Description:
This protein is of the alpha/beta class. The chain has 9 helices and 14 strands. A hairpin with a 2-residue loop joins strand 3 (24-27) and strand 4. The protein is globular, with a radius of gyration of 18 Å. It starts with a strand and ends with a strand.
Amino acid sequence: MATCNVCFRHCVLKEGQVGFCGGRIAKDGHVVAYNYGRITSLALDPIEKKPLARFCPGSQILSVGSFGCNLHCPFCQNHEISWSKEAWKYAERAETISPEGLVDIALQLRARGNIGIAFTYNEPLIGYEFVRDTARLAKKEGLKNVLVTNGTAELGILEELSPYIDAMNIDLKGFTDHYYDWVLGGNRQQVMRFIEEAVRTCHVELTTLIVPRENDSEEEMRALSDWVSGLKNPDGQDVPLHISRFFPRFHMQDRRATDVAKVYHLAEIAREKLEYVYTGNC
């Protein structure tokens, strides 16, 4: 038996068994990245799509994803590669790229404005070894490294990655334990600890998706933005908060999209405490 060290679940796995996230496996007495270098998504994106509003604005970044996730958000827009049965279909035909190969692609795209690599689309922390190995090489080549994550990881994982990561967008999906525990299958306290440490090491921006009847109250936004106001990025500036509109997806196709006026209203509430608040999907 082997115990995974990535997130609060600490999955105990038999040899050859895959963990809850679908991206880690027990092998030779250790839990390793089953999805190492297995790429399902690759695109050159504007940095603002991560979303990052105050990190290298106007630039392009090579965005790469694998498969698997340690949360089970019922509204996941990337569920095909994150945690549905379809994810395994993607896994079977995923192209394997080495860290060296991915860095080479990123360097070739410099002529098109590429500044580096963003690890995104699925949850990159469940395959942190590939992120670490690639980001280390990319940094030596003068490329920027960006992590788009749900922040559900032990601080030891952050410690391994932080020397190589220049910016993160971290989901702070809500501000109640009930929402994290019962809707997302996560752990809010672990995410908050991760964010508190991440802001010490690199530029961080946060994203909250507003889901009707789940995390859309004024009280919750006031509590969330009050907590975020106590954080500062390494340059001393406030941590930006992106407030995004929900659209019906996956197991929440019966819900209506978040009212645009609601998103704008919650953004105004957040601005009572925060200097940088952005709205998305409106």
